[in-house]
Design brief:
Blueprint (H helix, E strand, L loop, with lengths): L1 H18 L13 E3 L5 E5 L5 E6 L2 E6 L5 E5 L6 E10 L4 E17 L1 H4 L8 H6 L6 E5 L17 E2 L2 H5 L3 H14 L3 E5 L13 H6 L4 H13 L3 H23 L23 H7 L9 E5 L8 H19 L5 E5 L15 H11 L6 E4 L16 H14 L11 E8 L2 E7 L5 E3 L5 E7 L5 E10 L2 E5 L8 E4 L9 E3 L8 E2 L22
Helix pairs in contact: 5-12, 10-11
């Protein structure tokens, strides 16, 4: 008994000693960049009641760890500064110092694989990477952790951009940051937390999605899947699939052929990138509150089959992130889906076109922007290698809206349509520019339909700075016009500044991705 009591006491002392340590998340470290002109939170953990002192730029900020051990201070807002400074955090027992801390512009780079796509994987990434010697451009990546448990830290560290680490960093993120760094002449910090193949709902705190009745079907399907992947039948089916795979792998080996891909356990979904709340808890939450200017976002491919739902889910994501971050309506700029898949011989419906429209509709939120890249995609590959046009079109929004510079930045958008017999005149908002057709005089990418709602290709003719006359010899009395409404449209209408016209439709026909109402319950025959 005495020995057991001694061991228990020893373990308790070890536990207390382990707790009595000044801890801070990895987002604070050497080489970090703090957002300029903003009161930046700095936080960490220690024993409840511990007095903490934070010192930076000649000022001292006191704090006391709360009952949960967490403490926080807010640094005074300061202008951009290229001179590295020390941020010191001290208690009565220990002290930590973060060196070469700069003040400048901080942006988060989020989304799925096209944001994750590295600089080294782009067409001229070798040349861009070779020149990545910018001592005031700093980068940090957050690992992919899918969980329902809110994480408070991650494994990562800030680095000074150089030819080696830049090649492995988000191409869009790096190029976006490089433009800001060079044009604004201030330090730039980039936080990359993109996760390939991720669904939008995984990026939002689960509880908020569950409470919103608009997403009742989404969450019902989630709970059903959570149960299904853990049933005995699911386990047995996976075991059988594994056995079959091993058999086929042995046959392939004997035939000197490549082995087939191994089956994925159904339970892998539980810690994956599509379960609601998983990425928010494991990836977003650890950096939540770190001062930033805004977010750049490239995601939507994984939600295209549910574009109708995305019309509500995407703006909800932005609104929730702004509430969670606690610094008001920070800027949020996204990339509209590129052209992808095979070109269609005839016009028709498209879930990707519907997803693009859901993105465009989200421009109703304040301090948002959209980079249209309907001309950048590669039909056979969901990952366009050209990330330069993507980054440049994104950064235009920031340079104008956040930094007050004068650049063309917004793609022309649909404004109105007038029908006169066989002719439809479409008016666009060109935001001070005018229209031009690329390569040929005819504006391609238009389709019209009559009252029968059968779509036909149409000819577009620019008849004014912001107007296009659309006709088709197959539709005598058009009632609706669509432009670039396809997975991979052939279209060539631009502003005079070189920004592609935003895909649009003039109709309000139901989305093909709109959920069908449930079939009425069968009525039992009377006995």
């Amino acid at each position: 008994m005495k020995k057991s009591a001694f061991l228990a006491a020893a373990w308790l002392l070890l536990a207390l000693a382990a707790r009595a340590e000044l801890k801070m998340p990895a987002v604070f470290g050497d080489f970090m960049v703090l957002q300029q002109k903003q009161a930046n939170p700095v936080w960490g953990w220690d024993d409840p009641g511990t007095k903490v002192t934070v010192t930076f730029a000649g000022q001292t900020y006191p704090a006391t760890a709360g009952a949960d051990g967490r403490w926080q201070v807010k640094l005074a807002a300061a202008a951009a500064n290229k001179n590295g400074q020390v941020l010191a955090v001290a208690t009565a027992k220990e002290k930590r110092e973060f060196k070469d801390v700069l003040i400048g512009e901080v942006w988060m780079c989020s989304g799925q694989s096209n944001m994750q796509w590295s600089l080294g994987q782009t067409y001229t990434g070798d040349l861009e990477g070779a020149g990545a010697r910018r001592s005031h451009l700093r980068i940090i990546s957050v690992p992919q952790v899918g969980t329902q448990e809110l994480k408070t830290d991650f494994k990562g560290r800030w680095e000074i951009a150089n030819p080696e680490n830049a090649k492995g960093f988000s191409a869009i993120g790096y190029l976006y940051g490089r433009y800001l760094h060079d044009i604004l002449d201030v330090p730039v910090g980039l936080i990359d937390n993109a996760w390939g193949g991720s669904a939008a709902e995984a990026w939002i705190r689960r509880e908020t999605v569950e409470k919103d009745p608009r997403f009742a079907t989404l969450m019902a399907n989630t709970r059903r899947r959570e149960a299904d992947v853990q049933t005995e039948k699911s386990k047995a089916d996976f075991a059988a699939a594994q056995a079959k795979w091993k058999e086929n792998a042995e046959k392939a080996k004997a035939a000197k052929k490549a082995a087939p891909a191994a089956p994925v356990a159904p339970t892998a979904w539980l810690t994956g990138n599509a379960r609601p709340g998983n990425i928010f808890a494991g990836v977003v939450h650890p950096t939540l509150g770190y001062g930033l200017r805004g977010v750049i976002w490239y995601q939507g491919e994984s939600n295209a089959s549910r574009a109708h739902e995305h019309r509500e889910l995407f703006p909800f994501l932005i609104e929730q992130w702004r509430k969670e971050q606690g610094q008001g309506d920070f800027s949020f700029y996204w990339v509209q889906l590129a052209d992808f898949r095979a070109e269609k011989a005839e016009p028709g419906e498209s879930d990707w076109a519907e997803l693009r429209e859901s993105q465009t509709k989200t421009l109703r939120l304040p301090k948002t922007g959209q980079a249209v890249i309907i001309d950048v995609g590669e039909g056979r590959d969901i990952h366009p290698r050209n990330k330069y046009d993507v980054a440049s079109r994104l950064v235009r929004w920031a340079l104008v809206q956040d930094y007050g510079l004068k650049f063309p930045y917004r793609s022309p958008e649909y404004k109105s349509v007038a029908f006169d017999g066989a002719k439809a005149t479409v008016t666009l908002d060109t935001f001070g520019s005018s229209l031009r057709a690329f390569d040929i005089n005819e504006a391609r990418g238009f389709a019209v339909c009559g009252a029968d709602r059968v779509w036909h290709w149409a000819t577009g003719k620019i008849v004014g700075p912001n107007q296009v006359e659309v006709t088709s010899d197959k539709v005598a009395a058009p009632v609706a016009v669509r432009y670039a409404w396809a997975d991979n449209p052939v279209c060539n209408l631009y502003s005079a500044d070189g920004l592609p016209v935003t895909p649009f439709r003039t109709d309000d026909f139901d989305y093909t991705t709109k959920p069908k109402p449930p079939a009425p319950a069968a009525v039992a025959p009377k006995s």
